[in-house]
Amino acid sequence: MIGAIAGLAAAGLAAGVATERYLVNKARRDSDDPHADEPFGELPADSVRMVTTPDQVAVRVETVATEETAGHPERVRATVVFVHGYCLDQGTFHFQRRALTESHLPVRGVFYDQPGHGRSGELPVAEYDMDALSDTLDSVIRHVVPQGPVILVGHSMGAMTIMAYSRRQPEVFAKRVTGAVLLSTSAGGLDKVSFGAPRALARTRRLLLPVFSRAVAMTPGTIDRVRRIAGDLAWLLTRRYGFAVPDPSPALVSYVEKMNTETPIKTVIGFTKTLLEHDEHASLTAFADIPVLISSGSDDQFTPASHSVELAEALPHARLLMIPQAGHVALLEKPEEVSPALLKFIDACVTNSGAEDVLDETPGSRPRRWRRRAKNPRSDGPSKDGEQ
């Protein structure tokens, strides 16, 4: 009897794996992939360094110049710092990074991998919180951008990191941050989101989390190996829950799935409780006097679009760009809509134009104008050697 059950289970598993591979291969074969030759994760950097956080995590930081500032650091008028989200890495901003480097904006870009992600060091503790992520952002700014105006761009957990940073470093934020971009994110209430799972399963996650955390603590390597073996299933789940268009680029799905799968299970679990308990509504007052661009995919299953609408309504100088038929990684799924809006926003922040016309002609943008500020107290200017 036991042998028969084991045989049936093995046959079922084999059939499931075969079905997954068939579906994955069919999706890849049927698609005329516009990103088949895209060099995901391979964009050049002008400089690469490791910054050590207060809790001794080595964080990989890359900087890039634009057409305007390449070879001319004295032309840099602001630095744009990009902060990626959960189970991803700095490559999430692939298309925005390339658009920035090809632009003629008088800025430079800073990209880094969050602790436990990408090519940064592992988490030093079992549970990591937003305060620690805020301290990482602070370390990056202090070491790489020690002076001058800063524009912060965050996706998902990266935007939550920016919110926490505004709370923990209020004086630096008020003095130096001249604009913020909050992509596919939330100020709180994620414990009520199902993340695309059945409601019954979503309700049990708090009960199961401690059990799974203990299992991860005992056998993290084994779990990571199983995750890598289940590549086809991970690919299908990424395609199903990460994107909204019916036929996303297979290469793009593979890239997102690769970032997800290469994130250690210790990191996956280490941030789960933090995300569910995240609440930075009180921090939003720090954004009241600066331009803010908020964007969300209309079909985001992880940080629903309603959370971005709530953010926009709470901030007097915010603009909301809703991306139709886009999921949680709208910046990868619909870069043709996100990147131009981002560049226009950065330009408005750098010129301190008040951004009256930003997004006015962009479909899906909220008909709301930023008011020109009476003065700009954050114009420290770049140093003579070009470092900010």
From TrEMBL:
Residues 377-388 have a biased composition (Basic and acidic residues). Residues 366-376 have a biased composition (Basic residues). GO terms for molecular function: catalytic activity. Residues 356-388 are annotated as: Disordered. Residues 79-335 form the AB hydrolase-1 domain. This is Pimeloyl-ACP methyl ester carboxylesterase. It comes from Stackebrandtia endophytica.
